[in-house]
Design brief:
Layout (H helix, E strand, L loop, with lengths): L6 H4 L2 H4 L6 E3 L30 H11 L6 E4 L1 H13 L5 E6 L3 H10 L2 E6 L10 H7 L4 E7 L11 H14 L3 E4 L21 E6 L12 E4 L3 H14 L5 H12 L1 H24 L4 E2 L8 E2 L2 E2 L7 H10 L3 E5 L10 E4 L5 H18 L3
Helix pairs in contact: 3-9, 4-5, 4-8, 10-12, 11-12
Length: 369
């Protein structure tokens, strides 16, 4: 494994110091929740080694939502571990994977660290970041072990529809490879939600977590789903060699949350929609940024218009150090510096609007004279 730190982690806001940021638009999740606000009871929890697959009752709740059995669900320490397990289970050095790009950095960097050969399915702004299935078809070879996609997409927030998903699954089956679908933002869809993709084929692995949609990144609770029994045995072996089990504290918090998920998630959904409306209004009233309007998630990936002559290094310096506003930088996703990932549901609605306007102010100051 050729480990290398990713820019998105090196430049994470927690490293810079949250106390130094007034408007944090860099986060890709909903506002961090307080344990006291969730109404949970943990006093009687026995701090034992848990079930290696994860708390059975939690796996059952997750399984029921997608039409699976509990044995189709493996609980992991966040989606990051699930992604790592899948990548390291499928790929060896010089194996081939197809990854949509731009993408969440881990989906790209882990295959690289393994030494796998990576082909990129480029999602272009000019095409509305839409997936080209013919292009995907051409990239998949007899050596391709895995296709890695994310929907709703991070960082753009775009979505495919169910017909497109089924066409991708059919392609993967025909080519004899496997599909990894990162579904972390699935509950944040502004349009009808896609089915859990692993329900469509035993050649599909679905991954999700409690971090992004629910604002619970601190409990490190994720999962992967597959109907393929042989794969699930391999994934379990990988988990056991990494950590044996999850934290039973994390699993219990997640379980009790899921027991009243609709009650707890309803205000989250309302806040995301409110902030999305603020963002849409802002985008319509300015002429500095252009975007592809997201259909889900809580992030978007606008860019500064090409006709604006700007020093991007100066822009980010001014935005952060003069206006105390932080955004995700284009190079986090190996994209042009003019792109910004804006998270619009971590900070307050007031700070969101203030931060958006600070972007315009910083652009003005950083223009090349």
């Amino acid at each position: 494994m050729l480990y290398k730190r990713m820019p998105i982690e090196i430049e994470a806001p927690e490293g810079f110091g949250y106390e130094n940021i007034d408007c944090n638009l860099s986060e890709s999740s909903f506002t961090d929740q307080r344990l006291s606000d969730l109404g949970l009871r943990l006093d009687d929890l026995v701090l034992l080694y848990g079930d290696h697959k994860g708390k059975p009752e939690l796996r059952e709740l997750i399984a029921q939502e997608g039409g699976f059995s509990a044995d189709d669900v493996l609980l992991t320490s966040g989606a990051a571990m699930a992604l790592f397990i899948v990548a390291t289970s499928f790929l060896n050095k010089n194996d081939h994977i197809v990854v949509a790009k731009t993408n969440y950095a881990t989906n790209i960097e882990t295959p690289r660290a393994i030494g796998a050969k990576v082909s990129y399915l480029n999602l272009r702004f000019e095409d509305g970041f839409q997936l080209d299935i013919k292009a995907l078809d051409k990239l998949i070879t007899k050596r391709t072990k895995l296709v890695s996609l994310t929907y709703p997409h991070n960082p753009t927030g775009v979505l495919i529809d169910e017909d497109q998903l089924k066409a991708i699954v059919a392609l993967v089956e025909r080519k004899g490879t496997y599909l990894l679908l990162d579904e972390t933002y699935r509950d944040m869809s502004f349009v009808p939600k896609l089915p859990v993709a692993a329900r469509l084929s035993d050649r599909v692995i679905s991954i999700s977590s409690m971090s992004k949609s629910y604002g619970l990144p601190g409990i490190r609770m994720g999962w992967l789903i597959s109907q393929n029994k042989a794969l699930m045995e391999t994934f379990l072996a990988a988990k056991e060699q990494i950590c044996i089990t999850n934290s039973v504290v994390d699993e219990e918090i997640a379980f009790q949350y899921w027991q009243k998920k609709e009650q707890l998630f309803a205000p989250v959904r309302d806040t995301i929609q409110k902030n999305f409306n603020i963002l849409k209004t802002f985008m319509a009233q300015q002429d500095v940024l252009e975007w592809v309007e997201p259909q889900g998630g809580c992030v978007c990936f606008p860019r500064i218009k090409s006709e604006i002559d700007i020093d991007m290094a100066k822009f980010h310096d001014i935005l952060l150090n003069q206006y105390a506003t932080y955004v995700g930088r284009g190079h986090w996703f190996e994209a042009d510096a003019r792109y910004l990932r804006i998270g619009y549901s971590w900070d307050t609605s007031e700070k969101l609007l203030k931060g958006l306007n600070n972007i315009l102010k910083a652009v003005e100051v950083a223009k090349c004279k």
